[in-house]
């Protein structure tokens, strides 16, 4: 029997998470994409803490005009801005089992433009 979309994504996510891990010096940029919103957070997996989180639900992003891809790019820039303010320049990118395409790619490219290295 074929896997559902969610089961397939969960398998990919678990396979990647065996390898990708974040530290305090180089945290993991974890992405979650729903149908309407996109969320990004920097995670220190050793301590088990979230260092910072940004989503498209922030007032300045949500109130702005544009497509979901445009808002994902705004989230990427905001993540980079907050990370640089916290002294974080290098991260490990975790696409969360999603294809590196569309909103996920927009977010990653905007984070790179904002100054994050990965």
From TrEMBL:
Function according to Swiss-Prot or TrEMBL: This is one of the proteins that bind and probably mediate the attachment of the 5S RNA into the large ribosomal subunit, where it forms part of the central protuberance.
Coiled-coil regions listed in the entry: none
A Pfam family this chain is assigned to: Ribosomal_L18p
UniProt keywords, alphabetically: Ribonucleoprotein, Ribosomal protein, RNA-binding, rRNA-binding
CDD domains: Ribosomal_L18_L5e (cd00432)
Entries under InterPro entries matching the protein: Ribosomal_L18, Ribosomal_uL18_bac-type, Ribosomal_uL18_bac/plant/anim
Statement: the UniProt record of this protein carries the keyword Cytoplasm: no
Family stated for the protein in its record: Belongs to the universal ribosomal protein uL18 family.
UniProt xrefs under Gene3D superfamilies: 3.30.420.100
Assembly behavior: Part of the 50S ribosomal subunit; part of the 5S rRNA/L5/L18/L25 subcomplex. Contacts the 5S and 23S rRNAs.
BP-aspect Gene Ontology terms: translation
GO cellular component: cytosolic large ribosomal subunit
Domain of life per record: Bacteria
Protein name: Large ribosomal subunit protein uL18
GO molecular function list: 5S rRNA binding; structural constituent of ribosome
């Amino acid at each position: 029997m074929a896997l559902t979309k969610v089961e397939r994504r969960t398998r990919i996510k678990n396979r990647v998470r065996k390898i990708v891990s974040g530290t305090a010096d180089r945290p993991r940029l974890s992405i979650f994409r729903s149908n309407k919103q996109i969320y990004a957070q920097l995670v220190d997996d050793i301590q088990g803490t979230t260092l910072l989180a940004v989503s498209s639900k922030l007032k300045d992003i949500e109130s702005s005009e544009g497509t979901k891809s445009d808002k994902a790019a705004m989230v990427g820039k905001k993540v980079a801005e907050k990370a640089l303010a916290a002294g974080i320049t290098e991260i490990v990118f975790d696409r969360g089992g999603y294809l590196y395409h569309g909103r996920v790619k927009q977010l990653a490219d905007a984070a790179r433009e904002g100054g994050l290295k990965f």
